[in-house]
Automatic annotation (TrEMBL):
Stored InterPro entries: AMP-bd_C, AMP-bd_C_sf, AMP-binding_CS, AMP-dep_synth/lig_dom, ANL_N_sf
Domain of life: Bacteria
Biased composition (Polar residues): 155-166
Protein name per Swiss-Prot or TrEMBL: Acyl-CoA synthetase
Keyword Ligase: yes
Naturally occurring in which organism (per UniProt): Actinomadura alba
Region (Disordered): 144-173
Domain AMP-binding enzyme C-terminal, first and last residues per copy: 420-498
Entry keyword Ligase: yes
Keyword line: Ligase
PANTHER family found in the cross-reference section: ACYL-COA SYNTHETASE, MEDIUM-CHAIN ACYL-COA LIGASE ACSF2, MITOCHONDRIAL
AMP-dependent synthetase/ligase domain: residues covered: 6-361
Family statement: Belongs to the ATP-dependent AMP-binding enzyme family.
Amino acid sequence: MGSLGFWRLAQQDPDRIAAVDPDGTEHTAGELLARSNRAVHGLRALGLVPGDGVCGLVPNGTEGLVLYLAALQAGWYYTPINWHLTGPEIAYIVADSGARAFFAHERFAAEAARGADEAGLEPERLFAFGEVAGFRPFAELVEGRPAEPPGDRTNGATMHYTSGTTGRPKGVRRRLAGLDPDDAAELMTFLLSFFGITPGRPNVHLVTSPGYHTAVTQFGGTALHMGHTLVYMDQWDAEDTLRLIERHRVTNTHMVPTHFKRLLSLPEAVRARYDVSSMRWAIHAAAPCPVPIKQAMLDWWGDCVWEYYAATEGGGTIASPQDWRAHPGTVGKAWPISELLIVDEHGNEVATGEPGTIYMKMAGSEFEYKGDPAKTRANRLKDHFTVGDIGYLGEDGFLFLSDRKADLIISGGTNIYPAEIENEIMVHPKVADVAVFGIPDDEWGEQIKAVVEPAAGVEPGPALAAEIIESLDGRIARMKWPKSIDFIDAMPREPNGKLLKRKLRDPYWRERDSAI
């Protein structure tokens, strides 16, 4: 221990460029260190102690990075909030996380204000980057605070919220070990080491996706702790990605298959305009990647395209370019510190090549769903856990995904659970019954489909579909809205009331090789 960790590296080389904001503004390690130190001093003055929570509703960039660095050296849990959420959804996370400070960017001012009001957090604990009604300027928190490191430093952690089939997201909370923050950060770097990623210059990590995703925080944060420069994108654009890779000589990034598809859709002349030869680790996950798309990326970028399968809860697999070429379609073999278990519906291990529910475990990664011990227990089998995915292991231990949990929709790499959407649609007076599920989408992987049984005497059709979708405005995030609504005379249910969703879903997937 002792060679990695942002705070340690920043003191050794404060003039190094550590991050580049989406507008091109460069920030040195020393500047970010001072800003995060001041934030710690300011929040401690508000009474925050180790184990407390801090929430951030901020776009990609150094505002969120400073909150992350403050929390992780003061023993706090930092929760980045999805900025597509509505006020009530934001309020739930702020309240459920036990946040004792909430930071919001003026870009999300309206929903941030709604969320803060509903969560009931005291006004002195609300801070804004820019102007947000009812929030104090961030400058007031840090004004006059020392730039020197705080005393009694202890490691904190991120606590991301992951959706559940009950429709309410749950925070994945890990026990804090009481380590020196730099030592804890150095331990985090094990993940990137699996890919062979090296520390220090001249490595540059391109942040392509929203920072509220677990993997984005994990890969970006770990790259920072390894001494890499972070280059932030605000909104993803295919050609802009190529431009930034060439301009900053980007060596590593984290993407989803939707990014690959859009990059490959660029005209050949545009693709040929940019030099991407600096890229050594283009890592992707979050959704299955169609074999032809992965093959095309390898043909274009060379053997730098790595894949993994994992969950916020911990554990996973990894597939090198060579592994994937030898086993097309695999998501890889278990990490050295992870184990896989494939079981049938009775919890018994299945034979090689036979599909079953995927369970994983990872050494040193005990977690709980905050406030939900029943959910924590329900997803466990001994010391393994599952997110409900279905897959099988080949003879040599390579994992292949066969199906996702029936209810889970993966659209553009984002997990969407239908129960929450169904609950909102069901309250519409013209709806008798509803089922929501994913159907194939060549660009996004899946799109959200709703099937509605209209109330008695209600005429189905485009007008009713539009009315139902519009009724979701302000109640759930737009990314959760159904792309389309079909109508059915009677929903297929068993006598006990269980919905036979597969009967509705299967016809849409009939022409596909898998039901992902």
